[in-house]
Design brief:
- The protein is mainly beta and 412 residues long.
- The chain is built from 3 helices and 26 strands.
- Strands 1, 2, 3, 4, 19, 20, 21, 22 and 23 form a 9-stranded antiparallel beta sheet that branches.
- Strand 14 and strand 15 form a beta hairpin.
């Protein structure tokens, strides 16, 4: 397998990215890109470079679009692209324009359809945890409730890519911890702005959720996304520390400022039924990192494919697609964002094992797979342009609205 550079912008000689390559069919690459190779593309902003190259893979030629971000440059940062609510979708280019990003790529898998639950609204909410500007937006749904390909062994919906307050990128796992404190005792909180709650649990919905129906949160089970919706549910609305209303059925509509809606299913519903209007209730929640002691400024879900410079065992090396990915290099100081082209000529794509190998070749020691297929989108500003444009060809022919993404922001 080889990578071939394409000319774009001004004419220049082709550059061979790889010095010693093995076959990607075995889920790994040998060799690495020459030092500085990723910096020979088109500068988008200080510390941000866009490049494009072709990959001669086992099942045909794939085209890669790559953004390299140098976090050592204080003028650039990464952040969460999102449409303004957890339960909402917008195209990557629209999200980037609304937030002033100079580049970006789509992010986590999301609740895209509800064919198994007729009459239930798909929320558009993402699968994994999300943090924006240091604030926890949501927790992870149970593993069996996720959308997307099967998770590699040992990974979870709690896995995230993120950047800490120290400006270093890292992979981690974020677990929701929370409580509902009542005069009768403390109840465990096991959901935050999630389209699916664990069986028997209580989840919290805040203004960050948006206006979508909360019914979906009580459908399926921890191991079967298509299982029927629970018939044993209860919803309690808490405003400024007091219960103001209750209902047997989860509702919809915006959650107003100062308000938290608690949704319970099965045992969780039974416990919420003990609350009464006017009772004092305190809701607490936070996302706890498994390894990092540095607070996250931004994080989003997906799943890891490369750790410690080695592909994870059990990665799919048979199914080719166009999955985007994000890689971490130079101790978290450099980030590589990759999206594959979905044009018919390149749609054979790569397997997840091949993606892990490509990220390793580009210098990453850790890498994270994001939502692929029609969602795969990479945007970046042309030099001198006022807004971003789509650089790859989404396989749907047009941009698909998505739940979130990784945004590249510049102060220059």
């Amino acid at each position: 397998m080889t990578l071939r550079r394409r000319r774009f912008g001004t004419a220049r000689a082709a550059l061979t990215l790889l010095t010693a390559l093995g076959s990607l069919a075995g889920a790994a690459l040998t060799g690495a890109a020459p030092a500085g190779a990723a910096q020979r593309g088109t500068p988008i902003a200080p510390g941000v470079v866009y490049d494009r190259f072709d990959i001669a893979a086992a099942r045909g030629t794939a085209r890669a679009h790559v953004l390299t971000v140098d976090l050592r440059d204080r003028r650039v940062r990464l952040g969460l692209l999102h449409p303004g609510a957890v339960a909402a979708r917008a195209t990557v280019s629209r999200q980037a324009a609304a937030q002033g990003a100079v580049a970006g790529v789509n992010g986590d898998f999301f609740n895209i359809s509800e064919t198994q639950h007729p009459g239930v609204q798909a929320t558009g909410a993402s699968v994994g945890p999300a943090i924006a500007r240091g604030r926890a937006l949501k927790g992870a749904v149970p593993d069996g409730q996720r959308f997307g390909p099967a998770l590699p062994p040992g990974t979870s919906t709690q896995d995230v890519f993120g950047v800490g307050a120290d400006r270093r990128a890292r992979l981690d796992r974020l677990r929701l911890t929370g409580s509902v404190r009542t005069p009768e005792g403390v109840l465990a909180l096991r959901g935050l702005n999630q389209y699916a709650l664990p069986v028997g649990s209580i989840g919290a919905f805040t203004p960050a959720w948006g206006s979508a129906s909360r019914v979906r949160a009580t459908c399926g089970t921890d191991t079967d996304r298509a299982a029927p919706c629970s018939t044993d549910t209860y919803e309690v609305t808490v405003r400024r520390g007091r219960v103001v209303s209750a209902s047997d059925t989860p509702g919809s509509g915006p959650v107003t400022a100062g308000t938290t809606v608690l949704v319970g299913r099965e045992e969780g519903a039974r416990r919420l039924r003990k609350l009464f209007v006017g009772e004092r209730v305190a809701v607490r929640h936070r996302l706890v990192a498994a390894t990092s002691r540095v607070p996250y400024r931004f994080a989003l879900g997906g799943y890891p494919v490369l750790a410690g410079g080695r592909p994870l065992p059990g990665l799919d090396d048979r199914t080719s697609a166009v999955p985007p990915a994000v890689g971490i290099a130079d101790g978290g100081r450099r980030v590589v964002l990759l999206a594959l082209d979905g044009a018919p000529r390149y749609r054979t794509g790569l397997t997840i094992a091949e993606v892990a190998g490509i990220m390793r070749t580009l210098g990453a020691t850790a890498a994270f797979s994001l939502d692929g297929g029609g969602s795969s989108t990479l945007v970046a500003r042309e030099p001198g342009a006022p807004a971003v444009s789509v650089r790859n060809h989404p396989s749907d022919g047009t941009e698909r609205p998505v739940a979130n993404g990784i945004g590249v922001f510049s102060t220059s």
